Amino acid sequence: MWWLAEVRVDAGLLTRLRRLVVVFLILIPASAHANDEVVKAPDFEIAQIRLTPANSSTPIAFSVKLAVTPSQHAFGLMFSPPLPAKSGMLFVFDDMKPRIFWMKNTPIALDMLFFDDSGRLVSLISNAKPNTMTLLHSKVAAKYVLEIGGLEASRLNIKIGSRLHLPIVITGNKVQLRKK
């Protein structure tokens, strides 16, 4: 009869294992959906802008995504692959005020260039660390913010006093760049 007791223990163990398997089968798809959540980027228009480094008369052309709406501002360059040289994102705001950014879900280092309403570079954050939630402050009022690859501003000799060519005119959700 010793084998009968063994069968009962194995049957109880088997029942518990079956329950455990059912729980895992229920939880695995739920956790897979949480981890595989697809984040859709807003639509960004692409524009060509020009920036003239301080102590230079030769403008540099950049290809940028334009962030004009609040949802575009909030998404920014999250989940972005590495940026090619002379490319980035230009944030266009309606007003002049100190700006605060962070690097949440941004896997690449960035330089953040803050321009006033006349297009003058008034603050610069170099090589912001990827995937951090540290708040990065412009410390001065800005209307435009250009994000480019980390250390690219230094490589291109862009520093305080450099110029973003304006005007940039906003009509609805569209941005028009006019050459002067």
Protein architecture, described:
The protein is 24% helix and 38% strand. The chain is elongated, with a radius of gyration of 26 Å. By secondary structure, it is α+β, with helices and mostly antiparallel strands. Residues 30-36 have low confidence and may be disordered. It has three helices and nine strands. The chain has helices at 2-35, 70-75, 152-155; strands at residues 45-52, 60-67, 87-101, 110-115, 121-128, 136-149, 163-164, 168-171, 174-177. The relative contact order is 0.17. The strands form two sheets. It has a seven-stranded mixed sheet with strand order 5-4-6-3-2-1-7.
Topology diagram in text:
Elements: H1 2-35, E1 45-52, E2 60-67, H2 70-75, E3 87-101, E4 110-115, E5 121-128, E6 136-149, H3 152-155, E7 163-164, E8 168-171, E9 174-177
